[in-house]
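Kindly inspect both lines:
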Amino acid sequence: MNEPDSASSGSASSGSASSELMTGDADLRADVRRLGELLGQTLVRQEGQKLLDVVELVRRQVREGGANKTLSSLSVEESVDLVRAFSTYFHLANVAEQVHRSRTISREQHRDGSWLSQAVDRISSALRRGEFSLSEITHWLENFSVRPVFTAHPTEAARRSVLSKMKTVSEL
């Protein structure tokens, strides 16, 4: 399965934020494309070329504006296989996006420092500029409170076996 076409990548001057964004997006697209190719190979190996052909046909027809005729001609079994193939593709794309996001955050922290070190630097600069006093900072810190909140949306919950497989895919 190939990645759906997305915005074309251009080039910007080296070192600019725009260039980093485009390179990052290109990296993500390349990861998704590679995972799609591996999924296609797996579908052929486990289910046969016919399933991959149907997947590619439906994908192409949807991009061109519709696949109703093809979809309505599928048997229940073929429909289930098609849904599973697309579901797996989207799971893999989500893993690629999570890995990409982790890489982006890591690069930003390496370049700019953590959010905490950035906050301390900004507070220090503001203090030097006289925007507030040391006694005000002391008062704020004495009244500062951190309360972690753990939430999970039902769609974000995943079984340990799924998380383990996603971790393995991201490491590969």
Remarks:
- The helical segments are 17-47, 49-63, 68-72, 76-112, 115-128, 134-142, 160-171.
- Residues 59 and 118 are 45 Å apart (CA to CA).
